[in-house]
Each structure stands twice: as C-alpha cells, then as structure tokens.
Fold:
Amino acid sequence: MNLNQLKWTKNINRDDGKWAYPHKDIDYNTKVFNLHWKPESYNNAAKLEKGDLAILRQKTRVTHIVEFIDSDAPQKDLENNNKWICRLVKVIWMADTWSEPPHQKDLFDCSLHLEGGNIMKLENIQNLRQRWDAKGGMPSFQKHIQKKLKL
Structure:
C-alpha cells in the first residue's frame, strides 16, 4: 500500500473515556465513517484534501489510519444534533484488538506529547522530524509505518 499521502495525525478524546470509532460503529462493507471535530475547529477540519491520510490516536494508542474521501468543507453532524462537525473518512487500517492497540511511541519511533483534538501535520511535529529527518524524512517514516502495520 502506498502511504505517500500520510501527512496528518489527530488525537481523539471522548468525554466518557471510551474508544471512539470501534469496529462495531463502522460499516463492515464500506469502512466509511464521520470523523468529528468541535465546531470551533472548523478551519482545522477544512485543511484536509481528498486523498490525504491521517493516523488517529487515542489514549496514546494508534487506533486507525484513515483516508479523507470527501472534498467538501466540514459538515454539521446531523445525527448528533449538530454537536460536532465532521469529514467523511475511510478506514485504511484499524487496530485488530482494542485491548492493546499499538502504542504511539512504538509506531512513531519517538516520544510524542500531542494533545487536543485538532489535526496536525506530521512534518510540523518537532520530535518526529528530529527522529526521521536523519533517516530520510517523511518517505522513510511512511515506509516504517507501512512495515510496522504490515500494510
């Protein structure tokens, strides 16, 4: 699988402490779901282009790699009483087991202290750049992810 479009990461925190977007909540056939942001993060959600890939993290664990399949601006999530805005994504990879998804430190091969629910460009994360610039930059990181997740 080609991960050239893997450019982003997003941390997800549910107020109730549960995992977001587990297998049971994603259509098995299409693997498509709405990825949510708070309404005040509209500009952040609008940054992504159709075809971009993002690593989703929860509780310091990597749970998904998703592809953005819409090219529209973020939409209000009508199913959740407009509490969120969303973008349409398709699962490229999802943790097999929710009891122990891969730790972000193991997957990124460096320590990360990333919080909040906004999407972040991988190349703007200082620790990640310091770790991977000497090893060939983002293309090497993308190959590392591909190998680590057996994509």
Summary: The longest strand covers residues 85-94. The chain has four helices and seven strands.
